[in-house]
Amino acid sequence: DIQMTQSPASLSASLEEIVTITCQASQDIGNWLSWYQQKPGKSPQLLIYGATSLADGVPSRFSGSRSGTQYSLKISRLQVEDIGIYYCLQAYSAPFTFGSGTKLEIK
Amino acid sequence: EVQLVESGEGLVQPGSSMKLSCVASGFTFSNYGMNWIRQAPKKGLEWIALIYYDSSSKYYADSVKGRFTISRDNSKNTLYLEMNSLRSEDTAMYYCAKRSYRGFDYWGQGVMVTVSS
Question: How close is the nearest chain B Cα to the Cα of A40, in Å?
Fold first, then answer.
């Protein structure tokens, strides 16, 4: 099974700051990597798909990148509404696996 | 507008069974694979099952394999999760999610399953 190692587990950053979250896949998953945001008491929402493509309606301050088997989610200018928990997901091969999540707070 | 609405929430005893449903609307249900994902209280997301658009293939997480069954009825635009031999560790919010080339692009609101004596 493919393991997704996500870091950091938590992150506190200031408004307008650049934030980066990473996921390391245990093997090649190509671009079958997506990122999700979950706000308290809500269902997760798709942010990034295909490792680098922005989902519909997602602000352009969110971006995704890939370097080999390492994937990153970047928020270029942190806003208050960005607080929540972020997860990566590999859907290359079942069983699909989520990263362990990153809790993002405002400093 | 795409909508996924789960039902079947409840409290059950360990060892018992339960069936969840997810009714889809706003897209051609029969064209897409569907998933179940769960989230234990204060924990992360756990993918648990996938069914192809035509039910030709089904996949499960090891944690539920042999106890849970995913199925679908394309004539009713409905996804199901039959859960048997429930354990306390199955206590979680259960979400259905539509799968596309974009990932899991739509999620239901979730239903809470509590397994306790």
Answer: 10
